[in-house]
């Protein structure tokens, strides 16, 4: 598969001023010469120097486009193979024709992410850097793009390499004290435990950073909940800055849920406008409330609305109790209307919970609300700290953490050094999975299938 020369469009689909077709493989230049002819007949294609010419259909024996060709010889290329890039006008018809005649000339159409996969297979990058490349392409904020760029440069890979080095050093010390006790190489249980605990702290920070990574890449889910007619849909529309939900003065307008993504500062949030929590009067409303409760339990955070123009009710207090463990932000809505609610009584029930007075309809304190949402739900990133963006990475780090904790527990319980070493030794293949040194086909396919074809 990797001996074949591949071809694909590397610029986004659609019309544009410029389009690029990329070839990679040992036949890249010979295939390119069949479909590209320099303007000057005796001109030679030199490495790293763009040359002007015409694209040639060797079947019809006619030229059909002007283009620049650049040849990149291996190994100093993206894939560590010979590569060719053809730059022409960004017409989908033209680009597709280059692909067609390129395949006729001996290339194969690239699979999703195959250029980056070849870079990984040939050792130019590890799997963490490969994931970072796709993260840059699909970045939803500049902050995420900067984090991904650092990881492409190897920041996360170096951190994991340092972890591996520390684990191997610890194992070598334990095993040396087992094999050569007479050589005074014995490491004390206190030293082992200190190393384990220090390593645990570093891994915990990485795992905890996933919350920030998720807000930057995929987004955190915020459920907007409250009794019927407290202004949930109005707030939903106000945060989205468009009329997405139908708003009426009649209770129970929203019977199902609506979900939309929005950006607040540099983070993504998935907002859910749910049916009002009340005694249902219709089977559809009952189903909407049922779904809403499920969404509420799965949400990363909650915006809990109260209507200050109405007296507080048992339903308000019941909802407050249900949401206490979901990082709720209490929002006292409709402050543009005469006050009837005893806000202090509600706040007493939600002691130490953050709150804000707003008018979703008039937009009062909406910017303060956005700032508060970001402050409450988005973790801070300390200067220079690494952030992981992928659940795959988080799960493997959690397995490594479990092994370290297991080793520390065995040590405290008085087990032999051989047993402790065996527990810690489980970490090495987990690190290899993390960096891609262990090439599990299912994981590799899942990662690279998320790439666009031309990358």
How many domain regions?
Answer: 3
State the helicity in percent bands.
40-55%
**Content-based structural category:** alpha/beta
Q: How does the overall form come out from the CA principal axes?
A: flat
| Beta strand % | 15-25%
CATH topology of the largest domain: Rossmann fold
Number of strands: 13
Largest sheet: 7 strands, mixed
Averaged pLDDT: 87
At the fourth level of CATH, the homologous superfamily of the largest domain is P-loop containing nucleotide triphosphate hydrolases
With strands numbered from the N-terminus, the spatial order across the biggest sheet is 3-4-5-6-2-1-7
Task: Describe the protein in words.
With 455 residues, the protein is an alpha/beta fold. The protein has three domains: 6-126, Gyrase A, domain 2 (2-Layer Sandwich); 142-213 and 390-435, Four Helix Bundle (Hemerythrin (Met), subunit A); 218-377, P-loop containing nucleotide triphosphate hydrolases (Rossmann fold), CATH 3.40.50. It has 16 helices and 13 strands. The strands form two sheets. The chain has a seven-stranded mixed beta sheet with strand order 3-4-5-6-2-1-7. The two termini are 17 Å apart. The mean pLDDT is 87.
